[in-house]
Specification:
The structure holds two protein chains of two kinds. Chain A folds into two domains: 66 residues; 222 residues, MetI-like (MetI-like fold). The longest helix of chain A has 57 residues. The N terminus of chain A is likely disordered. Chain A is mostly helical. Chain A has 14 helices and no strands. The radius of gyration of chain B is 25 Å and the shape is elongated. In chain B, helix 2 packs parallel to helix 4 and helix 3 crosses helix 4. Helices cover 24% and strands 35% of the residues of chain B. By secondary structure, chain B is of the alpha+beta class. In chain B, the strands form four sheets. Chain B has a six-stranded mixed beta sheet, with helices on both faces. Chain B has a five-stranded antiparallel beta sheet with strand order 13-12-11-14-20. Chain B has two domains: 230 residues, Rossmann fold (3-Layer(aba) Sandwich); 119 residues, OB fold (Dihydrolipoamide Acetyltransferase, E2P) (Beta Barrel). The chains are: A mainly alpha, B alpha+beta. At the A-B interface, helix 9 and helix 10 of A face strand 6 and helix 2 of B. The structure holds adenosine-5'-diphosphate and magnesium ion (MG).
Amino acid sequence: MKQSYNLNINADATKNLSLLDSVKNKANRYLQQRSILQHLLRIVLYVILLTMAFIYLAPLLVMVMNSLKDVEEIRNGSLLALPQDPSLAAWSKAWGSACTGSTCEGIAPFFINSFKIVLPAVAISTILGALNGYVLSMWRFKGSDLFFGLLLFGCFIPFQVVLIPMAMTLGWLGLASSASGLILVHVIYGMAFTTLFFRNYYVGLPRELVSAAKIDGAGFFLIFWRIILPLSPPIIVVTVIWQFTQIWNDFLFGVVFSGADNLPVTVALNNLVNTSFGGKEYNVDMAAALLAALPTIVVYVFAGKYFVRGLSAGAVKGA
Amino acid sequence: MAALSIENVKKSYGSTQVLKGINIDIEKGEFLVLIGPSGCGKSTMMNSIAGLESITEGRILIGGEDVTHANPKDRDIAMVFQSYALYPNMTVRGNISFGLEVRKMPKPEREKQVQKVAQLLQIEHLLERKPAQLSGGQRQRVAMGRALAREPKIYLFDEPLSNLDAKLRVEMRAEIKKLHQRLGTTIVYVTHDQVEAMTLADRIAVMRDGLLQQLASPQEIYDRPANTFVAGFMGSPPMNFIDVTIDSSDSLTINAGQQQYQLPLPQGYDLSNYVGKSVILGIRPEMITEPVQHKAGLPEVAVLKLKTLLTEAMGADTMVLTQLGDKELNCRINPSHSVEINQHSEFMFDMSKAVFFDAQTEVLI
Ligand SMILES: Nc1ncnc2c1ncn2[C@@H]1O[C@H](COP(=O)(O)OP(=O)(O)O)[C@@H](O)[C@H]1O
Ligand SMILES: [Mg+2]
């Protein structure tokens, strides 16, 4: 390019041009350096992320690997080695025939127990939370903020604190050692959270929606059913996922309140691991643990994105 | 019998009194506009009429029936909200017919009513859409449609146009006026826009800090404002206030620093109790103009030389800010007349519509 200027360009202009070029070069070099730095940072970031992910996933990986081995292989080899001859024998034993205390029917019956407790408990606590949230946001009464504040305490009370009073209450109600008793406990404990979720979602809705519906002639439940509930799917998803994982994973309330006939799967898993005839069957333990965790994992895999979406759901458009 | 009577209504939130004893009677078919600065209690008044808020004291009667403690649904009213408050999960059709459905109107009748209202508001093509798919102006129409569908005794509008852009607002304003003329409905309409108030109202109620300042026809409010607040609030640019002394039965003196100016008094204005005393003169900008031929020499007219500070061409006329002593006066002149900035020029004061306020109470004399 420079050559074409040789003939009739005076010295001054050439100097200017070369000055311009040098500025350009510097700028380019700077930009290059910056983009190299950015690339490096990005690589570092990914390395950190992958490392963290690996640290979190490693136990799961180890469990899956060892649940596919037989006991001999685990005992003789390394926990970290890949299975030589993968088999689902341990899984089927964990599911159907492993011993959990005095019975040897695997964890399958307890799986059913868990569902019998979790499904009603999630449904009832979600419905109550929605109604509470609706009242506390749209039908405020004198002292409703205080009421809400007190209810929030429920979110911060550790399980252990309420065990004895709860046991006494269940005794009085004649619900001790029954599935209904355990459901009641989960509903009460979960209601603080579900109310919080729904109330905070509903205060984001325009209160004039309710005013308009009142003027249109609708009452408390009709407004809830026709106006508020149709706007609630995002927060219902969040609440159901939250409650499902909380209650499914609960061990303490289960072991204390369920009674022998309704033990949830978490308690059964504990019994299974602690029951041994002869050597420990790590492969069965791990398969059982994975089975017990399966429902919550499935829920997260399929509904996780709705969970995130629901948590960040904003105001309703077009109200 | 009044369509709506508001009798000594008071409303407090805790220790703060928001409505301090409001009395208004509204005739059947009347268009009443409630106006006042933001926070003066207009929405609270509307919500009290609607029954969305309970009142602390007083009575509210609709068609002669005491509804003070009645539920909103039993008051036979409809309300249009500033935010429209359309049901986001329902179609336009659902929004309009919801109230009818709740009131158990049979479906065929309901359909007919929706159709009628949609036709009236020209939203037939929008019936199957959701509110989120509508523009601001369309939502506004749907909100009105929802109110119109039930054909209640009274319509309440709480700043229905304030979320629209200027052009649309003027259009909808005309449309609301036409609707009122056509349907002859009783309307209470809240706004803080004085042009809306002047153009729409049969009568205007001006509110301030929970108190009614004046309740009168737009022209009366404009010509004979009850006090300096109303005078300053209605009209843009606002009325000029000047401290003056009444000399005699036909002239006054403006004390503007070192200089003194004389102006005639409007004929028939009884100021005999105020001779020798200070009062506040109120004169609208359009009454201070360039000197015009046909008014020259009239007894209620005087010409003063004032310094021009600023001119604003509005097209139809030009606003001029002039200096009178330490005061600034808004004047309105013909755009064909030119005045020099920072120069003194002649301005004609037409005192025929001037008003006077007591210097202490600021109440109209
Ligand atoms: N729920 C409430 N609690 C306490 N104060 C309120 C409440 N609603 C309104 N106010 C107060 O009442 C006054 C009047 O409000 P509002 O009627 O909305 O005024 P406007 O509609 O004229 O702007 C305001 O000062 C406002 O702060
Ligand atoms: Mg308001």
